[in-house]
Specification:
78% helix; 0% strand
């Protein structure tokens, strides 16, 4: 039971930090203005790992490679810690860990899309004038627009967040299947 608790806490901490790094990347890709509480908080939490890497890895092609590498290193560290807690030698599983780190990054990214979409939907019902609503809408709009073009509103309701949520859930199932295949 103690091992499950430690694994849960480890998963929670690494997932939240990995998502913060991915959110940083997502904000940069969508050009979310940095003068809002969401951006400032994410930068404050992730600067300690991204800034030193940025000296080595410049942004190329509009992608902040220092942030991408930070997410990957976080995923590798998570999997190494998980392997150690389970009592195995991480060196013997290194090729699998390196491959699983990519799938872990994808899992975190898709989970983050689901959470941000859910938050956007709830804010639109509860408090559309919230200070968080603007940044959240800015982040989700590029993902929802293609769905909205294909799927009309039904009775004034925009079901595109639900469709995005379902697609993200299916992708998580695919990633889980691929993860089982790597190990």
């Amino acid at each position: 039971m103690f091992t499950e608790i430690v694994l849960f806490l480890l998963d929670t901490v690494f997932t939240l930090f990995g998502m913060a790094l991915l959110l940083r990347l997502w904000m940069q890709l969508t050009r979310l203005p940095s003068r809002n509480p969401v951006s400032q908080g994410v930068f404050q939490v992730t600067d300690w790992i991204v800034r030193p890497l940025r000296r080595i890895l410049p942004g190329i092609g509009g992608i902040d490679w220092a942030t991408v590498v930070s997410v990957y290193l976080t995923a590798v560290a998570f999997l190494v810690c998980r392997t150690l807690i389970l009592g195995a030698d991480p060196v013997s599983f290194l090729p699998a860990i390196l491959a699983l780190a990519l799938l872990t990054m994808l899992k975190w990214a898709i989970s983050m899309v689901m959470w941000v979409t859910l938050l956007m939907a709830v804010l639109s019902w509860v408090n559309p004038q919230s200070p968080l609503a603007g940044p959240i809408w800015h982040l989700t709009a590029p993902l929802l627009r293609p769905i909205q073009r294909v799927m009309p509103r039904l009775g004034g309701f925009d079901l595109s967040p639900l469709v995005l949520f379902v697609v993200a859930q299916i992708l998580l199932m695919v990633i889980a299947g691929l993860s089982r295949g790597v190990v």
